């Protein structure tokens, strides 16, 4: 349904934001559990390249039909990530990694499959890059299992929980660093007493930009302003807003 698609693309956007990619060059990203390529659409839109892996041929068929720009690979990530070392500048995954906790076959051991996934992912990522995996954990044991295997494989980092006080909007992002560990990005919807006021302010302001379905109309002025505001929050250089921002240009012939 369109609501699912919308939540999916919001999470993709947030995951890419949490990757903290360099602004000045296109990157190659791995999308684990890429499905029909919705996250890939956003990655392409941002000017980056991607390869998607999924275990479902039906979903990948849909991606092919939709003519997504990324390359697609039919594979079970529990068997590992089959790419050369240091190939990717980052990895995202939306609502997929928790499936590795299920033992679908007698031979499946969730800790082993998770470790195989994380250790080969660690190798496939360039030093200094990140993996951001959004997941729906069934319980805290599952979260601990996933995190423990990631750390065993060499990653540093941890869980960023957006909107932790909201039952509906709460989202878990496992934010993993390769090599030098950085500070975890700030979660959305967590207001603290100190100088975090700008973030709290933005979180409340966001509602102004929404259309009826809860998301700004793509390429609208609000959508552009929202994106520029996100970029500013990431400390990136952004052109000043003017009355021309988001205004349609006359067609050229």
Automatic annotation (TrEMBL):
Q: Looking at the record's lineage, which domain of life comes first?
A: Eukaryota
Q: Entry's InterPro entries?
A: Bud23-like, Bud23_C, Methyltransf_11, SAM-dependent_MTases_sf
Q: GO:BP terms for this protein?
A: rRNA (guanine-N7)-methylation
* Subcellular location(s) of the protein: Cytoplasm; Nucleus
Principal location class: cytoplasm
Q: Provide ranges: composition bias, Basic and acidic residues.
A: 235-244
> What does it catalyze?
a guanosine in 18S rRNA + S-adenosyl-L-methionine = an N(7)-methylguanosine in 18S rRNA + S-adenosyl-L-homocysteine
Question: What SUPFAM superfamilies does this protein map onto?
Answer: S-adenosyl-L-methionine-dependent methyltransferases
This protein's GO cellular component annotations are: cytoplasm; nucleolus
Q: Where is the Methyltransferase type domain?
A: 30-106
Q: Tell me the ranges covered by the 18S rRNA (guanine(1575)-N(7))-methyltransferase Bud23 C-terminal domain, including all copies.
A: 176-250
- List GO molecular-function terms, semicolon-separated: rRNA (guanine) methyltransferase activity
Protein's UniProt keywords contain Oxidoreductase: no
Region entry Disordered, spans: 228-253
- The yes or no answer to whether the keyword Transferase is present is yes
Pfam short name (any one): Methyltransf_11
Supply the alphabetized keyword list: Cytoplasm, Methyltransferase, Nucleus, S-adenosyl-L-methionine, Transferase
Q: Which family does it belong to?
A: Belongs to the class I-like SAM-binding methyltransferase superfamily. BUD23/WBSCR22 family.
Function as written in the Swiss-Prot or TrEMBL entry: S-adenosyl-L-methionine-dependent methyltransferase that specifically methylates the N(7) position of a guanine in 18S rRNA. Requires the methyltransferase adapter protein TRM112 for full rRNA methyltransferase activity. Involved in the pre-rRNA processing steps leading to small-subunit rRNA production independently of its RNA-modifying catalytic activity. Important for biogenesis end export of the 40S ribosomal subunit independent on its methyltransferase activity. Locus-specific steroid receptor coactivator.
Q: How does it assemble?
A: Heterodimer with TRMT112; this heterodimerization is necessary for the metabolic stability and activity of the catalytic subunit BUD23. Interacts with GRIP1.
The protein depicted here goes by the name 18S rRNA (guanine-N(7))-methyltransferase
Source organism of the structure: Casuarius casuarius
Recall the taxonomic lineage recorded for the source organism.
Eukaryota, Metazoa, Chordata, Craniata, Vertebrata
């Amino acid at each position: 349904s369109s609501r699912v698609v919308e939540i999916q693309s919001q999470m993709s956007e947030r995951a890419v934001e949490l990757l903290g990619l360099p602004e000045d060059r296109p990157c190659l990203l791995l999308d684990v559990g890429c499905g029909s390529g919705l996250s890939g659409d956003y990655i392409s839109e941002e000017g980056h390249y991607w390869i998607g892996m999924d275990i479902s041929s039906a979903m990948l068929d849909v991606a092919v039909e939709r003519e997504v720009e990324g390359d697609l690979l039919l594979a079970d990530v529990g068997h590992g990530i089959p790419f050369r070392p240091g190939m990717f500048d980052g990895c995202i995954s939306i609502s997929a990694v928790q499936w590795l906790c299920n033992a679908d076959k007698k031979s499946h051991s969730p800790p082993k499959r998770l470790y195989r996934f994380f250790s080969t992912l660690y190798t496939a990522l360039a030093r200094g890059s990140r993996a951001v995996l959004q997941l729906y954990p069934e319980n805290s044991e599952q979260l601990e299992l996933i995190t423990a295997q990631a750390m065993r494989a060499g990653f540093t980092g941890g869980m960023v929980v957006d909107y932790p006080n909201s039952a509906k909007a709460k989202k878990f992002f496992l934010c993993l660093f390769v090599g030098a560990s950085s500070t975890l990005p700030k979660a959305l919807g967590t207001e603290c007493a100190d100088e975090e006021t700008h973030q709290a302010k933005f979180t409340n302001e966001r509602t102004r930009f929404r259309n009826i379905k809860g998301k700004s109309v793509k390429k609208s002025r609000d959508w552009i302003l929202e994106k520029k505001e996100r970029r500013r929050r990431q400390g990136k250089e952004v052109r000043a807003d003017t009355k021309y921002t988001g205004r349609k240009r006359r067609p050229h012939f």
